[in-house]
From TrEMBL:
Belongs to the ribulose-phosphate 3-epimerase family. It comes from Clostridium algifaecis. This is Ribulose-phosphate 3-epimerase. The keyword Ribosomal protein does not apply. Binds 1 divalent metal cation per subunit.
Length: 216
């Protein structure tokens, strides 16, 4: 089953609660939460207190994408705030193997994100121990960017590693996915699809989720 993970970076923060209730009602599989520190990426979003608040109003698993330097400093805080899956960036952590084990020690799922220019081979030895790999299909930092076409090859490479070493691996794709390309992204091997603008555009969450599913 393909999972849809709406990114609340594209939500209207003046009514975040009601947008989350809609995601709940209209069948989002995960809530994708983009945390940015203004250092790893050139943007600042939101953090631990916001996650804690919205955790009270939904049971949808929280897929927390940490676009922050040295994420190991804050893992425990994000677990306490309600993260169910934690993604750290390959490029942001010098001791990734240790951080993955640390995340898993809390009973939370562990995932590594790869920036567009980062080769898939870099996670070859980690893959058995991962619950998810996130393939960035835009340069991280902002919603609403264009899908980078070579990402499909990278997804295929992750799928090959997954078939060989970890059949249960979730393969997530993040950035620029919409109705026009979701099918090819899934065909390449992705099974968790992040969608920000494609879900929140025109304030039609219900219709947008349904039409994304309709394309798969
Ligand atoms: C980008 C974020 C994405 C982003 C996706 O740094 O990681 O999750 O919100 O937004 P869209 O789907 O609009 O590209
Ligand atoms: Zn993201």
């Amino acid at each position: 089953m393909i999972k849809i993970a709406p990114s609340i970076l594209s939500a209207d923060f003046s009514k975040l609660g009601s947008d989350i209730e809609k995601l709940d009602k209209f069948g989002a599989d995960f809530i994708h939460i983009d945390v940015m520190d203004g250092m790893f990426v050139p943007n600042i979003s939101f953090g631990i207190p916001v996650i804690k608040s919205i955790k009270k109003i939904t049971n949808i698993p929280f897929d927390v994408h940490l676009m922050i330097e040295e994420p190991s400093r804050y893992i425990e805080d994000f677990v306490e705030a309600g993260a169910d899956i934690i993604t750290v960036h390959f490029e942001a952590d010098r001791h990734l193997d240790r951080t993955i084990n640390y995340i898993k020690s809390f009973g939370v799922k562990a995932s590594v994100a790869l920036n567009p220019a980062t080769p898939v081979d870099n996670i070859k030895y980690l893959i058995k121990n991962l619950d998810m790999v996130l393939v960035m299909s835009v340069n991280p930092g902002f919603g609403g960017q264009k899908y980078i076409d070579y990402s499909n090859y990278k997804i295929e490479e992750v799928k090959k590693l997954s078939d060989k070493y970890n059949k249960d691996l979730m393969i997530e794709v993040d950035g620029g996915v919409g109705r026009n390309n979701i099918k090819s992204v899934v065909k390449s091997g992705a099974n968790v699809i992040v969608a920000g603008s494609a879900v929140f555009k025109d304030n039609k969450i219900k219709e947008n989720i349904a039409s994304l599913r309709g394309e798969i």
